[in-house]
Amino acid sequence: MTNAPPPVNAAPPDEGCGEFGIRIGRDGTWYYHNSPIGRLALAKLFASVLRREADGSYWLVTPVERGRIVVDDVPFVAVELDVAGDGRDQILSLRTNLDDRVEIGDGHELRVEIDPATGEPRPYVMIRAGLEARLARSVFYHVVELGTEEVLDGHPQLGVWSKGQFFPLGDSTAAT
Asked: 0.70 cut: is pTM over it?
């Protein structure tokens, strides 16, 4: 259930056009030369040609040109969660700040990193082709409320079910 744009199939020149002066802030705001891009439709257009290369760099790619952009964390923020069903049969659906919609499951995996400096969780979901969304704090809290404990490799894990898959959120004994 994704409304992601089709991938760009034509290969632009490898060298690209250099920097485009576009940055995506940690909060999902798109900037052009440090000014917020206020038109959602324009940010969506740019996002439709966004690619992440194997080296972790981000590029806007069209059939005739490509240019590097800066992404502070990941390009999208999951801002809304919908839940259908319950238990192992539940389906968790997310909407991003640019209105992409995905169901957590195959191809749209949920993962949680721990910030080494603060110890805080950083939850992410795959949106498309190497492009992830960070879950907004309120969305992550909602996900945690749906959490259940499962034993994985002999260790209790807090996690959530979606589309028949269990996605660990962390060691359930870490807080005790």
From this structure: yes
